[in-house]
Structures are given as structure tokens and as C-alpha cells.
Design goal:
The protein is an alpha+beta fold. Helix content is 21%, strand content 27%. The chain contains 7 helices and 15 strands. The strands form 2 sheets. Strands 5, 6, 7, 8, 9, 10, 11, 12, 13, 14 and 15 form an 11-stranded mixed β-sheet that branches. Helix 1 crosses helix 2.
């Protein structure tokens, strides 16, 4: 059976700064406001590759809107977040795919009701902490946690958040000085050899995407150590260890070597080139933060955590492995 097509809409100059709801009414003639709200709240609308449940979201010229034939999976909530370690200074959790680590700068002024439509991990954690510590619900906002590193929305894995200013400063320093231990597991297209990728990354490589540059003195150094773990037919299960921690570093480095991560929707094409086909049917971006190590900001104790592949990626790898043997 053929899958229903999902219409894609691009924002016109005259639609810049209009709401998503208003644009949808224009793109879908005859659709009422109530029908538009039902589409948005029913998780049928994707904005730039991410589900958007806010009809009041203001659009930019670069935005791409997609109407899904079926509702997207629900947003992870408190029950989907597993706490691995908690004390008065920090919390280590297993981040599920589908939730953003922190609120984007342009969203921080949103009222609480609007943010609750799609909460971020750092917004969920205070309530999780209150439940674990058995405190009674207090009036006002629970004490916030502080992010010292991030994972992309569709990346799962281990994260640490600081609970105090002292812990935030100490942990952030470790990430800046690259003394933390981080290992990622990914499934990529093609056959990958062991290598160390070292480039300088810039925010815009020339087409609006982040990427590497050869221009002297420009960009920030990024170093990724890649080791193949297992061939899976036309794909490879790889292990990546970060020596630096730039935004989208692993995704960019692997894609620039001609091996985009399965499920990649941003760095799946070379500069001004055509997208590299992905026939893997990955359930999402096949990238997972499997190991995290750091020094406790107060006791100085070495903390190390490991997390196996979550069910969706474990099943994906098992399928590729079975297909490779058949």
C-alpha cells in the first residue's frame, strides 16, 4: 500500500511574521480556524523537521512546513525520563528522543501555557526532582536546573544538569576544557573506516547550514574520533568519541565524509549538491549518547555512566543486521 503524500509548504516573503495558523488557512483553502487548530494540536504539522503544536508560532522566510498524513508520536513527558543519579548539586538523566534539551533563545519569553505545549527537558526536571525527593508542591516556580551541554531533539542519551551555580560553573568548565568523557553510537550510510576527523566549523558554510571551512583563522576547531563497530549491509554501526563538543559536530563530520547518520534531515547533502538517498527507514536520527564521564563539581569524584541503545534504535540495528544476513 502506498503511503499518503505529505504536502510541503514554503513561507513566502509576504507571510513572514504571520502565524502558523494563518498561513495554514491560506495554504489549505476552505479550512476553518477550528480545523487548523485541530491539525496543529493533533501533531499533524511539522516545522523545519520538528513537530509544532503552537498555531501562534510566527514564521520566518526560511521555514518549511509539512502536513503529516497521520499524527506524529507524542512528546516525551516526565515518565519517559529516567534519572540515573541525583544529589544536591547535579542530576544525570537518560534523555529520550523527541524532546529538546533547553528552550531556544527566541522562545524563552513565551508564557508558561504556551511552553507547556511542548516542554523542554530542563523544564521537566524540576518536577521530576520534586517527586523523587518527596517534597510537597510549593507555590511558585520550582528551582530550575542549569544546562551545561546539549543533545539535539532527536538524539537520545545521557545528560548532566547542574542544580547550583557552583556546580554549573565547575561542570561548564570541564566541558569547555574537553576533560569530560563522551561516547556516541550512530548508524551511518556506507562503510566507514577508523579515522580522526579534525576540521574547523562555521555557522554557515554557504547554504545556511553549519559545516567545515578551509579558510584560515575562521571557525572553531572540532575533533571527532570514529571507530567502526559492525557492518550492517550497506550501513555501519560506529562509535564516536568527542575531543571537542561543537554544535552538530558528529552529524556534520560524518556527513562530510559521505556517511550521513541514518535519519539525517539537515546534513544529508553536500554544499549546493543533491541530498544523499536514505533508504534505511530509520525511526529517527540514529544517534545516541551512550557514555558520559566527568568529575563531580564538589566532591571531585569521577562519575561515569553508560546507557545502551533505546528500544527504537536497538530494533533498527537488529533489522539491518537481519537484512544483511538474508
Amino acid at each position: 500500500m502506498n503511503e499518503p503524500k505529505s504536502p510541503i509548504f514554503r513561507v513566502l516573503p509576504r507571510q513572514v511574521d504571520t502565524t502558523l495558523g494563518a498561513a495554514l488557512r491560506e495554504w489549505l483553502p476552505g479550512t476553518s480556524w477550528s480545523q487548523v487548530r485541530k491539525l496543529v494540536q493533533g501533531r499533524r504539522i511539522m516545522l523545519n523537521g520538528n513537530v509544532c503544536v503552537d498555531a501562534a508560532r510566527r514564521l520566518r522566510l526560511s521555514d518549511v512546513v509539512k502536513l503529516l498524513a497521520r499524527p506524529a508520536p507524542r512528546v516525551p513527558d516526565e515518565d519517559d525520563v529516567r534519572v540515573r543519579y541525583l544529589d544536591a548539586h547535579l542530576i544525570v538523566v537518560e534523555k529520550p528522543a523527541g524532546v529538546t534539551s533547553t528552550r531556544h533563545a527566541e522562545e524563552r519569553h513565551w508564557p508558561a501555557r504556551r511552553r507547556q505545549l511542548q516542554p523542554t527537558l530542563d523544564e521537566l526536571l524540576p518536577q521530576i526532582i520534586l517527586k523523587i525527593e518527596g517534597r510537597r508542591r510549593r507555590k511558585g516556580t520550582p528551582p530550575p536546573v542549569h544546562a551545561v551541554h546539549r543533545l539535539d531533539r532527536d538524539t537520545s542519551g545521557l545528560m548532566v544538569f547542574a542544580r547550583t551555580h557552583q556546580a554549573k560553573v565547575h561542570l561548564a568548565q570541564q566541558f569547555r576544557q574537553h576533560t569530560t568523557q563522551r561516547r556516541y553510537v550512530a548508524v551511518v550510510r556506507g562503510h566507514v573506516k577508523a579515522q580522526t576527523i579534525a576540521t574547523r566549523l562555521v555557522r554557515d558554510r554557504g547554504d545556511g547550514r553549519r559545516g567545515s571551512t578551509s579558510a584560515p583563522g575562521v571557525g572553531k576547531q572540532a575533533i571527532t574520533h570514529v571507530r567502526p563497530v559492525q557492518r550492517l549491509g550497506d550501513y555501519t554501526l560506529v562509535e564516536c568519541r568527542l575531543e571537542t563538543g561543537r554544535t552538530h559536530q558528529i552529524r556534520i563530520h560524518l556527513a562530510e565524509q559521505g556517511h550521513p547518520v541514518c535519519g539525517e534531515k539537515v546534513y544529508n547533502q553536500p554544499l549546493f549538491g543533491k541530498p544523499i538517498p536514505d533508504e534505511s527507514a530509520a525511526p529517527r536520527l540514529a544517534l545516541h549518547a551512550a557514555e558520559l564521564g566527568f568529575e563531580h563539581p564538589v566532591t571531585g569524584e569521577r562519575m561515569e555512566f553508560r546507557m545502551p541503545l533505546p528500544p527504537d534504535l536497538a530494533q533498527f540495528v537488529a533489522r539491518l543486521r537481519a537484512e544483511a544476513k538474508s
